[in-house]
Structure formats: structure tokens, C-alpha cells
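Task: complex structure prediction.
Instruction: return C-alpha cells for all chains below.
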Amino acid sequence: MDGTFYTLQEFMTYTEGVTYILILAILLGMLGFWIFLVERDEN
Amino acid sequence: MSEKAAAASKSFFTPFNVVAGIIVIIGLILTALRFTGGLAAVTNLSDYNPWGIWIGFDLLVGVALAAGGFVTSAAVYLFGMKRYHSAVRPAILTGFLGYALVVLALNYDVGRPWRLPYPFVIQQGTTSVLFEVAACVALYLAVLFIEFSPAALEWLGLRKARRIVVKLTLLLTIFGVVLSTLHQSSLGALFLIAPSKLHPLWYSPYIPIYFFITSIIAGLSMVIFESTLSYRYLSHKMDETHLKEKNDVTLGFGKAASYVLAGYFAIKVIGISAGNHWHLLGTSYGLWFLVELFGFVALPCFLYAVGVRDKNLKLIRWTAVLALLGIILNRFNVCLIAFNWHLPSSERYFPHWMEIGISVFIVTIGVIFYKFIVTRMPILYKHPEYSDSH
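Output:
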């Protein structure tokens, strides 16, 4: 792909695809960050 | 002069009173110039730039920083985190003064301030986002006043009235959360109408969500900042409970702010992805966007987390300042710096010194009122005659 979008569908397919992968990474990242944040808490 | 009179004179001319007095005198002169000469006499506002720092700072930053009231009361009364109870009254007071000053600032900014009530009584304009903001701010100011009133009623000794108001606490907290959610996000929604004026890295269909989430960060950070200042300058007014809970508030709110900042960072990245604006990050505006994103979102997020893990209260308190600067920078970017970004530099807005002077004057009024109330009313301590939960 040369980075040019000719239709809205092409644009949405590309951006949504990237965004879904990002969301998955973020969800896992947020879990990890929560553990980092609370791991030294007293019970 | 007798010794007593000399002592009274000395206690009045404190450094705070002298500086505040000078600012108030200059502010009153600028106010006279504003209302006799009009907006053009004291501002650099133009048709291209009708919103200057009175909107960008006094309103957008003021409303965000006043979010501590709804954040703290929701944590305590809705989520049952009673260990933060001592933070409620100072946060409500800060919120009330913040919103009152926002309304005051609006009187300077709108061309014909006497028409401020028009949306309610002349033309309802219910399809306008600005109407929704006006309605929510007006209602929430009333809610904050009632939420704050138990402290004033205790001070005045009006037991019966206080008892009635205290019974409304839960309902008022729910109203506060609903109204804040609505207007904090709607302030961002105001920019949805200007996709061609706001730089694409800051413009997003998600901007109402960005504004709402940043208001939570601002509220949490403001409570930490305000409690730090109160402890430093007004610790003699604090009772044992406030002194004991102070560190818990800092740690708890620091942890919450860290996690909300992480979420905000994530949705900002999602915003870039959804608009496919990656290529803009290499431009000068892109670098400025990255400074905001990494320097004032990711960095305070990390520092808060390290502070919470290490129980480093000093680090959390300094991080609160950084986070607040980040909120101010964000609102300035959206309203001033990245707004009209395509205009030639000769048409860009830079505030007149008198605009800055009036903003400083308004903030100073807030600090004076805060000091006046806190030194007289039971804000940082429980009134001994009203030891029941409020």
C-alpha cells in the first residue's frame, strides 16, 4: 500500500485495523500498569 | 501609636496582604478600563480570535481545576471511601470558588455581560452546546453553594438549616457528578464545530471525552496541590483527623491520578490512530503535541506511580504541580496555540498584558476568599458542636 486512500472503506479498514491492535495492546498494558501500581500495597 | 495598634498594623501588612492588595488595586483599575472602554481597550481579541485567555485560562482551566469537588465527593459519598472524608470540604470550597470565578470571568469576556441570563429567559437555544454548558455551570454553581453551605451554617450557628442541607448530601453529590460529566465534556464539544480551525492532532471526535477525563486528572491533582498548600500555610487550622488523613489522601489520589493519566495517554494514542494522523507527528506542531503527551501526560503518570509505590509523598506533590501544568497546557493548546494554526503569524493571538492582569486579579480574588473562609469556617477541622458525619 502506498499510503493513499481512494475510498472511505479503505481508510476505515486501515485505521480501524491499526486501532483494534492498539486497543488490545493498551488493555494488556493497563493490566500490567495496574499491577505495577499496586504490587507494593499492604493487604 | 500604642503597642496594641502597632501590632495590629503589623499583622495587617503581611507580605500576602501587601501583594494581594496591590494586585486587587491594579485589577480594579483594569476592570474600570474594561467596562468603560469595552473589550478593545484591554484585549487583543479580534474576529479571528474571539476567545483569548479569559476563555482559555479563566474558563477552560478554571472549570477543569474546580473538578476536585465532584471527584472527591463522589469518591467519599458514592464509592464509600470514607478515609478521604477530610478532603471533601476543602475540595468543595475550591470547586465553589473556582466556578464562581469562572462566572465572574465570563462577565469580563462577553461583550454584553448583562445578557448572560438570556439563554434561560429570552431564547432557550436548547440545540446549542454552549447553552448546555451555561445551564450546567449555573446549576452546578448552585449545587456547590448548597454543598458548601453546611460549613457556613455551622459558623453562623444555624443548626436547623444545616440539618436540612446535610440530609441532601447524597442527592447533591449525584447532581454534581451528573452535571460535571455533562459540562466538562461539553466544553470540549464546543470545539467539534471547528474542525478546520483546530489542528488535527488536537481536534478529534473524542475531544469531549478528552476534556472529561482530563478534568478528573485536574480534580485529583488539585486536591493534592491544595492540601499541600493548606498544610504548609494553614496547618494550625487543621484538626487531628485532617492531619492524620492528609497522607492517605495524597497517596490515594496520586494512585488514582496515575491510572487515569495512563488511560488518557492510551485514548490520545487511539485518537491519533483513528484519524490516521501519524504523519503529522514529524511536523513542528507534532513535536509540540509530543511534548504535551510525553512531558505532561506520560511523565506525571510514571512519576505518580513511582511516588505511590515508594510512598514518596514529596514526589507525588511535585507531580501534582506537573500534572496541573499539563492541564493548563492542554487547554491553552486547544483554545489558543493549535487553534487558528493555519493563520499567518501576524493574525495570531497573543494576550494583551491587561488581559493577563485581569486573570491574575481573578485568581487573587479566589485565593483571598479561600483564605478568608478557611481561617473562619470549619473547612480544615470539624466544628466541635457538630461532630456527626456530614
